[in-house]
Amino acid sequence: MPLVSLPSYPSTTRTIFHKNSVACLRDEREEESTKPYLARGSRAPRCHYCRVIESHCLCRWRPKVETRSGVCLIMTKKEVFKPSNTGWLIADVVQDNHAFVWSRTEVDEKLIALLNDPQWQPYLVFPGEYVAAERVTDTVTVDPNKRPLFVLIDATWTEARKIFRKSAYFDSIPILSLIPEKLSRYKLRRSTRSEHLCTAEVAALCFDLAGDIEAGSALSCYFDVFSQHYLGAKNQLPLDLLSDAHQELKGYLE
After folding, report:
1. Which residues have C-beta within 8 Å of that of residue 147, sequence separation ≥ 6?
2. What is the spatial distance between Cα 100 and Cα 103, in angstroms, rounded to a whole number?
3. How confident is the model over 128-156, as pLDDT tens digits?
4. 59-89 residue pLDDT tens
5. 247-to-93, 166, 204, 242 alpha-carbon distances in Å
6. Which long-range contacts (CB under 8 A, 24 or more apart) does 156-160 make?
7. Please, how many CA atoms are within 13 Å of residue 228, restricted to the half-sphere of its CB?
8. Less CB within 10 Å around the terminal CB: N or C of the chain?
9. Are 24 and 80 in contact (CB under 8 A)?
């Protein structure tokens, strides 16, 4: 994965990170679009890198950890632009990150090549209640010859079910069904069901199952800090850099 540099901050040096595939997808879509996508709060100036309002920029809090797992995000066209999207956070943390915009009529050959790459063992993360039992597992096999690749449908629940039903290339991939012990902490958008986790929370559970404990912990901390920055900016509240979430995330900063 190519590298990208983030802007430097007072008393810090410029830090080099791997590329974020969701950010790249956003930039590609912007170039293709005939008119800009206007999300809620779009009038406020946002950091181009982290999408948070500039006064609450998140960039200096991006963690750096090593991961054996990879992630593949399947996104809708609108989801790529939403500043509240948490798939972006996963791509910030995981070096081997891939993102694709889903289309019912066109299949990206790069996606098919990724799913068939022999170095990866793909798992499609989806509720087991909607799938034939023989395809479902709740564990991740740690294979020394293959690395786990978690395929996450990053969309609303209604959209995710549609993508799942209409994507034949998922038919041969085992389904990883998660049983979360805690309800979602995601408060940036409304959900009709509190047991539905956001994409970042799902990914953190996947990494734990795969033995990427540090990545799972770093992503969970990063998600909490992102939520505080996002909601603080939305409600015009000052940042509490001494919060438990910020202090915990410091352990994953370079």
Report:
1. 68, 69, 70, 96, 119, 120, 121
2. 9
3. 888 899 999 999 998 889 999 999 999 99
4. 999 999 999 999 999 999 999 999 999 999 9
5. 18, 43, 19, 6
6. 156/76, 157/191, 157/192, 157/193, 157/196, 159/76, 160/126
7. 19
8. C
9. no
- Cβ 122 vs Cβ 115: under 8 Å: yes
> Which sequence spans correspond to the domains of the chain?
3-252
Residues 26-58 pLDDT 10s: 999 888 766 655 555 556 899 999 999 999 999
For the segment 229-244, the average pLDDT, to the nearest whole number, is 94
How far, in Å, are 28, 95, 98, 103 from residue 192 at the CA level? 32, 32, 29, 26
Tokens 């972006």, residue? 88
So what's the pLDDT on residue 192? 45
Any bridge partners for residue 125, and if so which? 152, 176
Segment 80-107 mean pLDDT: 95
CA 15 – CA 237 distance, rounded (Å): 27
